[in-house]
């Protein structure tokens, strides 16, 4: 499973890169706003220089022509840029055009298998079901994910599914268990994947035992 970081924060991206487990990054307008970014294209370029993997940058236009214009400009920033497009009729039309131009797309804000099917047919490179936000409205995010993976397998669509809007480690693990291609996760969730209280207890115990042995050996001469 590939792990993407869902952030526009350069320090977080650098840290995950240093850990050696970062395969890509996804951003959205809210994440860009959170970092107070003034130069959107410059910021996306900087992310691409750190990551060396797919970096999603979202269009703001809501009409097909506007989306295409933004998408073509974004794709010129760096070869790793993936254009993120919402799953609307205008968006699906734009994805169809962009896939013929070999511009990679990430169809975002997906909440149903029907939406995902349209994105697959349009030639989307990536499709992002929003797991956390599906759970928020009382639906079963894992049922949605299972439907998407079943449809992809049944027809051999090329798209990869990105488990998005991830809120906790369990989302990541359940998506991995189902064979989901990618999870894009906030930095706190990535940190949470490392932690287990028994790991901390185990390290404490090993260090304590080691130090006791060293003390004893010193005393024995
Ligand atoms: C996906 O690519 C989105 O950027 C993201 O996962 C949205 O997550 P949120 O629901 O936590 O805002």
Would you mind describing this structure in some detail?
Strands 1-2-3-4-5-6-7-8 form an 8-stranded parallel beta barrel, surrounded by 8 helices. The chain is elongated and about 80 Å long. It has 11 helices and 8 strands. It is α/β, with parallel strands linked by helices and 221 residues long. Erythose-4-phosphate binds at residues 6, 26, 28, 108, 128, 130, 132-133, 164-165, 184. Erythose-4-phosphate (E4P) binds at residues 6, 26, 28, 108, 128, 130, 132-133, 164-165, 184.
Spatial strand order of the main sheet:
1-2-3-4-5-6-7-8
Whole-Å distance between the termini?
52 Å
The parts where pLDDT drops under 50 for at least 5 residues are none
Shape: elongated
Helix content: 55-70%
Quote the average pLDDT.
98
Strand pairing plus helix content: what structural class? alpha/beta
Which percent band covers the strand fraction? 15-25%
Report the biggest beta sheet as strand number plus sense, adding barrel if it closes: 8 strands, parallel, barrel
Radius of gyration: 21 Å
> What sequence of helices (H) and strands (E) makes up the elements?
EHEHHEHEHEHEHHEHEHH
Q: What is the overall number of helices?
A: 11
Ligand inventory = erythose-4-phosphate
Number of strand segments: 8
Summarize the structure.
By secondary structure, the protein is α/β, with parallel strands linked by helices. It is 57% helix and 16% strand.
């Amino acid at each position: 499973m590939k792990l993407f970081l869902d952030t526009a924060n350069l320090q977080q991206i650098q840290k995950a890169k240093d850990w050696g487990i970062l395969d890509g990054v996804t951003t959205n307008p809210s994440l860009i706003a959170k970092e107070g970014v003034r130069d959107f294209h410059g910021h996306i370029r900087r992310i691409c220089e750190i990551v060396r993997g797919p970096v999603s940058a979202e269009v703001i236009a809501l009409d097909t022509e506007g989306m295409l214009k933004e998408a073509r400009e974004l794709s010129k920033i760096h070869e790793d840029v993936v254009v993120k497009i919402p799953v609307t009729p205008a968006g699906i039309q734009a994805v169809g055009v962009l896939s013929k131009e070999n511009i990679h797309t990430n169809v975002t804000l997906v909440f149903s298998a029907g939406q995902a099917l349209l994105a697959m047919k349009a030639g989307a490179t990536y499709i992002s079901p929003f797991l956390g936000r599906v759970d928020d409205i009382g639906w079963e995010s894992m049922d949605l994910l299972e439907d998407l993976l079943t449809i992809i397998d049944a027809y051999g669509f090329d798209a990869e599914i990105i488990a998005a809007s991830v809120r906790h480690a369990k989302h990541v693990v359940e998506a991995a268990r189902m064979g989901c291609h990618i999870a894009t996760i906030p930095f706190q969730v990535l940190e949470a994947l490392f932690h287990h209280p028994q790991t901390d207890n185990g390290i404490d115990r090993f260090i304590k035992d080691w130090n006791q042995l060293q003390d004893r050996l010193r005393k024995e001469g």
